[in-house]
Amino acid sequence: MGNSVLAASIHLDARAYPFAEPKGKQLAFASVTINDAFAIKGIKIMSGEKGPFVAMPGTKDKEGNYRDICFPTTKELRAELTAKVLEAYNDAITKGLTERAAEKPAQEAKRPSAAKRLDKAKAEVAKEPKAPKAEKSAPIKEEAR
């Protein structure tokens, strides 16, 4: 069986988990399930000069160099895996933005902004009847002994 035939018969299911705030150059983690039988976790989506790229799980050797612990063995499978992971990342980002936009009005209703709370407090104070001003009394002098 040729490598291109093998790559065509492999089903990849990718999931991405973006960070709310990027951690350095790392944008997200991802996992891939191959043919519903083998899972790879700890895939990193990194920010690069040419855009996001996929870094396979790795370990540091004695010299301090990182080595992939699992990786595609063909150019075609690497391209397909990268495309699936980046597609999952883009879907997760889009879904997250859509969900956050939908949640925003609900969050404001639950927890109004500081400016809205201040305006509400000012309106409540303005509604309250004003207390009469206290009369000023002359200062009490201490008697000299």
Structure description:
This protein is of the alpha+beta class and 145 residues long. It has a single domain (3-117), classed as Arylsulfatase, C-terminal domain, CATH 3.30.1120.40. 39% of the residues lie in helices and 30% in strands. The protein contains 3 helices and 6 strands; from the N terminus they run αββββββαα. It has helices spanning 3-8, 75-110, 114-127; strands at 12-23, 26-34, 38-48, 51-55, 58-60, 66-68. The mean pLDDT is 82.
How many strand segments? 6
Strand content: 25-35%
| CATH superfamily annotation | Stage V sporulation protein G
Number of individual domains: 1
Q: Within the largest sheet, what's the order of strands?
A: 1-2-3-4
Q: What's the overall geometry? A: elongated
Largest sheet: 4 strands, antiparallel
Q: What's the architecture, going by CATH?
A: 2-Layer Sandwich
Calculate the mean pLDDT score and round it. 82
Number of helices: 3
